[in-house]
Specification:
- It is a single chain.
- The chain is mainly β and about 600 residues long.
- The chain has 5 helices and 43 strands.
- The protein has a 5-stranded mixed β-sheet, with no helix packed on it.
- The longest helix has 15 residues.
- It is globular.
């Protein structure tokens, strides 16, 4: 009964607020392909990979050919207009010999600043090094090859599970599966050369290879990337993987056709929830959302009023398309009939959420065979657009008309000690009473690579309190003075505050210790303080009986604003219990103490 009331509230609000609705959500229009340089692609499609391959600040498109004849096409984006550069690659020559391209992913595997292209086909694995948008295949040279035992099998069926720095050594590794041989490969990247370490990582069982569609995600937020596939969850414990699906609550999930799935924090409570899409109508499975409740996942599908018709789906992408601060879901069908599904995520009452399909109301109109879907901001206006590859339409580009007045912020991250693409970064944004999190990945699952940048909608908030970036190798960086409605290019460890062009560094007139935020907190909080001149600073945390439990700073600091993150651990790394704590700033002759509350 509660679920029905929540959904009816949502629908009633949606249907009765026609004028406000146009401001609250957004609408889309179909872009004429020729007007933005998207040329005719006369071949059967098989998804796409979206990324800023030339790092010019605009996301590019790789449109994947599935079956011969024809070849995949590569488009670079020049301020919202695309230019095909396929002739600068050897892809056509490869695809002439290998009829079915299964998956492609952009990745800067050698950390040289150019994004390279990895490709899996029915027959082989390929890696093309990018040198200023000229691509050269180096697969054999660097050991990025699949094993082919003797026999009569000619189509091996390779899949790219994605790239991540699983061993936290600063470069990106790749997981690959092989259908016909039932093998799994974990290619460890050792300075640009690859070694298959699947056996020592515990990933060499036939049962795992049968899952074959893997993706990386740090689902337990412990700092190292884990693997998930269908209903199986493989936790990374120091480079060795263990299936923990049952202990996470997933033992009752039916997963035989869960081709499309993803983690996202739908309720903005600081942990990642799980969304899965039914892939085949004959399987009898349904699309579901599983809520993360203190590390255990609970099926919340009925509770949230999520009801998607049983059909065959061929794409899933997640992003805040209306910039209201709540991540939404686009589910793409693979049929000539019926519209795709655009699920708007909304808090319909305090503490009550629901998903409703608004596709038919906001301009989602194209039908016909299509595979793969991506949210991406092709024109950098801060509102997420939608791209699909399609046989009858070649390309489907839905432009977000950005007509609701909501605010946003975006981040383009670059690692310096961590991998250059900053894959594996956790970004937390605080605005008012709201907290949002994003995790960066390379490869979003079957047939897709989307959302190349970190993007947050913030609704009608007009300022951001702070942004905390946990870089892949563990550095925590706090950004303040973050301007809204623009993208910020952030290098690992380079700045402690974001300043737009023309800003003059601000020097406080007096010492100040701010109240920590958030407060109460679990598990982390930010403590900000201001110094009018350079001096020695000591920032200390005490428990309620006055015992020192952590020292967050003890060094000379320049004048200005500084921040520290405390994650409720003591000097030995032990997690501290809930309760009242005090933090004390000593700077020069200045001393100030404030209270904070930890709620575990």
């Amino acid at each position: 009964m509660k679920n029905t009331i929540v959904l009816l509230l949502f629908i009633l609000l949606f249907m009765t607020m026609t004028q406000i609705y146009a401001q609250d959500i957004v609408s889309f229009e179909v872009v004429n392909n020729a007007s933005v340089g998207l040329t005719i692609t006369p071949y059967e499609k098989w998804g796409m990979a979206v990324h800023d391959i030339d790092r010019n600040g605009y996301p590019d498109i790789f449109n994947i050919r599935w079956a011969a004849p024809g070849y995949s096409r590569m488009y670079v984006n020049n301020e919202g207009v695309f230019q095909e550069i396929t002739n600068q690659t050897s892809i056509e020559a490869v695809e002439t010999l290998e009829p079915k391209t299964r998956q492609t992913l952009w990745v800067d595997f050698d950390n040289d600043g150019d994004r390279d292209l990895s490709m899996a086909t029915e027959d082989n694995l390929h890696l093309f090094r990018n040198d200023d948008n000229v691509f050269t295949e180096i697969s054999t040279e660097v050991g990025f090859e699949g094993y082919k035992p003797p026999g009569f099998i000619s189509a091996w069926g390779y899949w790219l599970g994605g790239w991540a720095d699983y061993d936290l050594d600063g470069d990106l590794d790749c997981v690959v599966t092989q259908d016909n041989n039932k093998r799994m490969y974990l290619f460890r990247n050792d300075g640009g050369h690859f070694t298959n370490v699947s056996a020592e990582a515990g990933l060499d069982s036939t049962a795992m290879a049968e899952d074959y569609r893997f993706s990386w995600f740090d689902f337990d937020l412990d700092g190292d990337p884990d693997l998930h596939c269908r209903a199986d969850m493989y936790r990374n414990d120091g480079g060795v993987f263990t299936n923990v699906a049952a202990e996470m609550g997933f033992s009752t999930m039916l997963g035989s056709s869960v081709t499309y799935r993803d983690f996202f924090d739908y309720d903005n409570d600081g942990d990642f929830d799980f969304f899965k899409v039914n892939g085949y109508p004959t399987s009898g499975e349904i699309t579901e959302i599983w809520e993360n409740r203190d590390g255990m996942f609970v099926n919340a599908t009925e509770e949230l009023g999520l009801d998607i018709p049983l059909d065959q789906y061929r794409g899933l992408t997640i992003g805040d398309f209306d910039n209201d601060g709540d991540p939404d879901v686009f589910v793409q069908k693979n049929s000539a009939e019926g519209l795709d599904v655009l699920l708007v995520n909304d808090e319909v009452a305090p503490g009550e959420r629901a998903f409703a399909d608004v596709a038919q109301f906001v301009g989602i109109s194209m039908v016909g065979a299509r595979k793969g879907a991506a949210f991406f901001d092709y024109n950098r206006d801060g509102f997420l657009d939608i791209y699909l590859s399609s046989v009858p339409h070649n390309h489907i580009l839905y432009k977000n008309l950005a007509d609701n007045g909501a605010n946003w912020v975006g981040f383009i991250l670059e690692g310096t000690q961590s991998n250059r693409d900053a894959v594996g970064s956790l970004v937390t944004l605080y605005t008012g009473a709201k907290k949002q999190i994003r995790y960066t990945i390379c490869g979003n699952g079957f047939m897709r690579q989307d959302n190349p940048w970190v993007h947050f909608g913030i609704g009608y908030e007009t300022s951001i309190d702070s942004v905390v970036i946990r870089w892949p190798l563990g550095l925590r960086q706090v950004l303040t003075n973050v301007a809204i409605n623009q993208y910020h290019e952030i290098k690992e460890g380079e700045v402690s505050a974001v300043k737009t062009h023309g800003d003059v560094p601000f020097t406080p007139d007096a010492f100040q210790l701010e109240q920590n935020y958030p407060n109460p907190f679990n598990p982390g909080t930010q403590i900000t303080y201001h110094l009018p001149y350079k001096c020695n600073v000591k920032l200390t945390v005490y428990n309620v009986i006055g015992r020192e439990v952590a020292v967050l700073a003890n060094q000379n600091k320049q004048a200005g604003m500084h921040s520290a993150i405390w994650e409720a651990i003591d000097a030995s790394g032990a997690i501290l219990p809930s309760g009242l704590y005090f933090y004390k700033l000593q700077a020069g002759s200045f001393t100030q103490v404030r209270k904070m509350m930890l709620v575990q």
